[in-house]
Fold this protein.
Amino acid sequence: MTLRPLQNWYEKMLPRERFTLLLIAWAVVGLWFLLLTGQVKRLNSDLNLHKAQLKSQQASLDKKTAVENKLKDYAQIFKTSVSSTELMTKVQSYVQATGMPPPAINSSPPVANKESIFTLNTVTVRFNKTDFRQLVDFTSRILAEHPYLMIKDMNMSAELLNPTLMDGDMNIQSLELKPGALEITPQTPKP
């Protein structure tokens, strides 16, 4: 195709028509340039955003060894976790070791929070007419097992006739690591 017909058409135009055509052509070029500039700015901002995301991701990846070392330290601290059956056994053995009158011991269902790496086990000990010294010995045995065993709360009152004998109850809790809680598994990014 030759441009001769277009040239003939252009040459037949009046100067005013040529000026209008040239003005429209420049307006189209200017509009195209503005659209192109907008796209370049948008691409540049997207590129800067992705660079910032990559930089923060790299900073997180650079902390990997420090996080792994902390997890190893926590694994050493919590290498002994106490399950609900172990908690019940320990409490019963402490009762026997202190010579306390046999209290009522009830186990509550374990509480496992989805976000936590621990399962919380609870045992309630209800004691009647227990010597204060035996009770102190019992609680000191529980506290010696910290952080694996904890006394959540304790309510007690003295007997009216003999104030050295105590009645009350105590909630004892233990932390149990969920299986695989401290293992590091590579995560694949979500699309």
